[in-house]
Amino acid sequence: MSAETEGTGREAAPAEPETEVEVRDPVAVVDASGRARRGTRRFPLFTRDTARPEGGGRAAPGDAPAPARQWPLLAVLGTVGLGLLVTAFDAFRVGLLLIGLALLGGAGLRWFLPRVGMLAVRSRFTDIVTFGLLGCAIVLLALMAQPKPWLEIPFLDDALHFTVRNG
After folding, report:
1. What is the pLDDT of residue 25?
2. Which of 54, 76, 142, 156 has the fewest CB atoms within 10 Å around its CB?
3. What confidence tens digit (pLDDT) does each residue in 29-51 have?
């Protein structure tokens, strides 16, 4: 008797080696005797592979150099980097506009191009909504920044008058 079955009053049955066979039913498993039995629908303990996001393939042919295959991501990151550099040189409004426009450009690339490489992080819809909302928010905030805003929205001024300002 093994230590596992000791005290249960039963003998351990010899384990039959199981072989998995590709079957149309994704949860069917065939054991060594050829009998089909139901497998589990639980996720595996270790993930062997992950699905690439829709549109996550190379943006250029495989024989192109690595930067050329990822040009959409590099274009967005390069524009964001330029915006940060401009912001560091005390032109904060222009720099923030560049950053916001880079995100809006990323949303446009994600929408119009079938393959954008590593710019595709999630589903196409989620990427477009995320890039678009963040880009719009950054552009609007940059345009409304004080002093001397380039864009004034009257109801926001009234709301500030009743909540923050004295007078």
Report:
1. 47
2. 156
3. 565 666 666 666 666 666 666 66
| Alpha-carbon dihedral angle through residues 109, 114, 117, 120, given to the nearest 10 degrees | 70
SS (H, E, C) the chain: CCCCCCCCCCCCCCCCCECCCCCCCCCEEEECCCCEEECCCCCCCCCCCCCCCCCCCCCCCCCCCHHHHCHHHHHHHHHHHHHHHHHHCCCHHHHHHHHHHHHHHHHHHHHHCCCCHHHCCCCHHHHHHHHHHHHHHHHHHHHHCCCCCCCCCHHHHHHHHHHCCCC
